[in-house]
Each structure stands twice: as C-alpha cells, then as structure tokens.
Amino acid sequence: MKKLINSPRRVVPDLLAAMVAQDPSLCLLEGENVLLRADIPEDPADRAVALISGGGSGHEPAHGGYVGKGMLSAAVAGDVFTSPSVDAILSAILASAGPAGALLIVKNYTGDRLNFSLAAELAAAEGIPCEVVFVADDAALRDLVSRDRRRGLAGTVLVHKAAGAAAEAGLSLSEVAAVARGVADDLVTMGVGLGACIVPTAGQPSFELGDEEVEYGLGIHGEKGVERGPMADAATVTRRILDTLEAEMGAALKGPLGLMVNGLGATPPMELGIVAGEALAQLKQRGADVQLIWTGNFMTALEMPGASITLLPLDAERRKWLEAPTGVRVWPSSATVGMAGRSVQLPRPAETIPEIAPGPLTPVLKAAVERVAAALIAAEPHLTDLDSKAGDGDLGASMFRAAEAIRALPEAAYNHPAQLFVTMAATLRRAIAGSSGPFYATALMRAARPLEKEEVPSAEAWDAAFAAGVAAVSAIGGAQPGDRTMVDALDPALKAWGEQRAANASLQEALAAAAKAAKSGADATARMTPKLGRASYLGARAVGTNDGGAEAVAYWLAALAKA
C-alpha cells in the first residue's frame, strides 16, 4: 500500500486538522472529529436552523468540505467508511444548534441511520428540535430493494446545497426539512467503477477487477457493484447509466434537470468532462432540458477510479436554492449550462496551393508519402512504448496523426517537390502538437527552398534540401549529436548520404545508406544520457531505451528508401 499518510489510525484527525489550518471559516470541536462553522453564535438562542451531516470518512470533500455559509453548519467524521458514534453526532448538534433546531442529512446506510436517529432523539430531549432526512438516491438498486432501503450516494451533496441555502435564508426547521426531503425524494444516482480502492487500515484493494471489466451500480465504500460488465467507451458507459436513471425517473426526465457528474477519487477531470459532455448530449436526445450541471469530485471513494451520474428535476424554487451563493470553497461558483457546439471562427486567409500542372515526379512523390504514412501508422505502438518509458507517451499518437494528415493532402500538393514540402509543413504544423510539429514543419520549409527552381530537382538540389532540413532541426531545438534526440538519427543519416554522394553513388543508394545509418544512430541513443527534452528529466534512468524521436526518423527514412 502506497499512501501519503502518517498512520492508518490517524488519517481522520490529521485530515480535519489540516482542513481547519487551511480555512479560517472552519473550526474543530475539541475532543471530537467534528468540523464546525467558525461563525456559529455562542448563545444557542441566536443560532439559526443548523444543518448537520457526516458519516464515514474517505468521501472527501464530503462531508467536511461542505461546512460553511450557505451549506452545512457541522460535519461529523467517522473512521474511513465507518459511521461516526452517537455521542459525536450529539456533540455536533449541541455545538451548532439551538431552539431553532437542527436538520440532520443522512446517507441511507444502517449505521448512519441508527446513530444519527438516536442522536436526534437525545438532542430533542435536551430541548433542540431535530428533523432527519435520509438520502437514498441509488437507482441501480431499483430492481433489488424498495426505495427506502437504497443507499445514499453523491446526490446527497445537492441536498446539502438546497437545504443549506434555505436555512441561510432564515426558513424554519420544518420548511428547511421540506426543501431537503423534496430534493432527496427526487434524486437518482448511479455509479460505475473501473477499479477498487484501498482502505488505509486494510492495506489491500477491496475487490479485484479485470483489465477489461467495470462494475455498474456500486456504492461509495469500495464495494462491488450490482452488475459486472465489459469496459467500453465513455458514450456506451454513459448510455448504460442513463438507461437505468430514465427507467427510474420516467416522465420526470423529460423536463428541466440538474445534472451532476461525480468522480470517485481517481478519475481525472479530462474523463469526467468527457462523461459530462456525453450525458448532456444523450439527455438532450432523450428529451431532457439540463439547466444546471456540476462536474468534479463531490463524493469520492478514496482513490477509486470511476464516476457517478446524478439527475434531479428542477423547478424555479429548487433552482433558486441550488444557485444561491455559498462560502464553501469547494462548491462551484456557477452551474449554468453552456451552449453545445458554441464556437468562434478566427478570420484568416484561406491557404491556397499554386496552380501547377502535375510534374514528372508526381506519382513518385505520392508513392513515397504513402510509404511514409503506412510506416508511421504501423510504428505507433512501438513509438508510444518508447516515449512512455522516457517521455510523456504521446509520440506514437503524434506520428499517427501526422500520417493521417499527409495521407489527406490535396492532389495538387504532389505536382512539385517544393510544393509538397511546403504543404506538408503547413499540415504537420497543425496536426502534431508538442515539439515534433515545429521540428518537422521547419525542416520541411527549409528543405523546400533548394528544390524550388527545377521541376525535376538535380541531385545537388536534393543534397542541399537534406542538409537544410537537418540543420533546421538543430537550429531551432539546440540539439547536438550525443544529446539523445532525433538529431542522433538525422546527423549520421546526413553524413552517410554525403559519403555516398561523394563516391558518385545514386540518390537511391545514398538514401538506403542514410536509412541504415539513421537506424544505427537511433539504436545508439539507448546508451546515451539525455541532455534535452522530457527524457532529460530522467537522467540516467532513460538509458537502455532508444529515443522515440530518433526511432521515428529511422522509420520514415527506411520507408523512403523502399519507395
């Protein structure tokens, strides 16, 4: 188990202490794992309706992250995935509530139900009226148990938000409870897990899942789901979840909705954003009108990879509570839905290719480009593997995009070698991100200049073109032979070309020698310590693996030699 903690037994108090140290609006209740709003009046008679929630830890930012103006008054933190004690909950009620009463918002798990309910009874005996709202939004259990026996999931935080805004507005306990119950009754949520999490005190994953498997309909405590299925793309997974949510909601889905896409702890924002985009598009196709959207980590399961989708019907009053301002730092400042497909167009002159009739080299150039494209596409897995070991892993994908881009060149691009190089430069500049795009674009532009004057360039023109392209790469990147870059394939290739040409070899023979030298140069990079690029951050750890950029050069030169 690798976790950045001090002790498995100290994770909760350490976390709460850190949260208070970072936020002046929070304080700790002495002797208890309870977070409070720092602005709670000392005199209970001056206190408004208190909102209290909590449960087992490991769901951060829930629930302590939602303590603040406009949301919770207090959050009670149990051990990881373990309900807090009755006394801790009662202490939170006494510290935050007064005659105006307290609303307890509880996820529908047995331990939480029992402990929060008993604490409410004890608080009432002390003169503090309490209402308890249970959240049971897990739609995946619709065919297994009745609604009142289902689990509480990420939708719980929308109850926090709506009820918190109502309490902040000065509504009475019964009115705040009605707002909370209305939201809780209408919520539906379903999650998908791509892997397990590790509870600190357990030290091992809570279950095993194959590389091509996912768990549908899981809770938030590292448990298995209702159904195991094959791994699929975001569109398919989203559709599977929305099918269940629509079956639960019925006609209510075809009205104004709030949508929450919640990460379970280890899902990057990129993937959550893609799921959110799919959910918006698919809900529109189903006749829904999504008016509010929240995307991010709201209720997690430690470091579990996966996500959940929550839907909530909206009316004007509910939307008012959900959009009311809050002092809680982690809550999004806005939930307004954007406009699908909205974009602006940058005015720029259209790029045109000069009208030149096809030349003698047109079929040769087309065949050569096709060879290069096929070679780069075939090399994608190998280049990705190399770049993953000593870089950021994107080289294979970049070369694949380059291959697709040059395959799509217009026919007119092949009518003259210089025209082809200039057109390829513009195409690759747009198609390849990172450093490869500028390197290849600049090299091709400079290589085009010696070829401009002749329809069939002389051997000397090709000599100059090759030399100009290689020099351009070193000039703009600063790399020299021995730095472990693409130059370590280009430089020996150019030397081999020059030696062959000095010996009166044909261009074909020079090209074959250049390709062979490029491969030898690429292989030699495995023994070099990198001095430039992302691999340089690894130092000696990169030794033993060919440089991906040099290997890519060897691939396309070998393809040219065969063409």
Would you kindly provide a written description of the structure presented here, covering whatever features stand out?
With 563 residues, the chain is of the alpha/beta class. It has 2 domains: 11-194 and 231-323, Rossmann fold; 362-562, Serine Threonine Protein Phosphatase 5, Tetratricopeptide repeat. It has 16 helices and 12 strands. The strands form 2 sheets. A 6-stranded mixed β-sheet has the order 1-2-4-3-5-6, sandwiched between helices. Helix 2 crosses helix 3 (110-125).
Descriptors:
563 residues, alpha/beta, Serine Threonine Protein Phosphatase 5, Tetratricopeptide repeat, 2 domains, 6-stranded mixed β-sheet, 12 strands
Helix content: 40-55%
Indicate the CATH architecture of the largest domain.
3-Layer(aba) Sandwich
CATH class term of the largest domain: Alpha Beta
How confident is the prediction overall: mean pLDDT?
A: 93
Question: Total domains, how many?
Answer: 2
* Rg for CA atoms: 32 Å
- Which regions have little confidence, pLDDT < 50, spanning 5+ residues? none
Structural class: alpha/beta
Q: Give the tally of β-strands.
A: 12
Topology as a string of helices (H) and strands (E): HEEEEHEHEHHEEEHEHEEHHHHHHHHH
Q: Can you list the strand order of the major beta sheet?
A: 1-2-4-3-5-6
CATH superfamily of the largest domain: Dihydroxyacetone kinase, domain 1
The CATH topology assignment of the largest domain is Rossmann fold
Task: Please give the count of helices.
Answer: 16
Shape: elongated
Strand content: 5-15%
| Main beta sheet | 6 strands, mixed
Organism: Cereibacter johrii
Domain DhaK: 7-331
InterPro entries: DhaK_dom (IPR004006), DhaL_dom (IPR004007), DhaL_dom_sf (IPR036117), Dihydroxyacetone_Kinase (IPR050861)
GO molecular function, one term: kinase activity
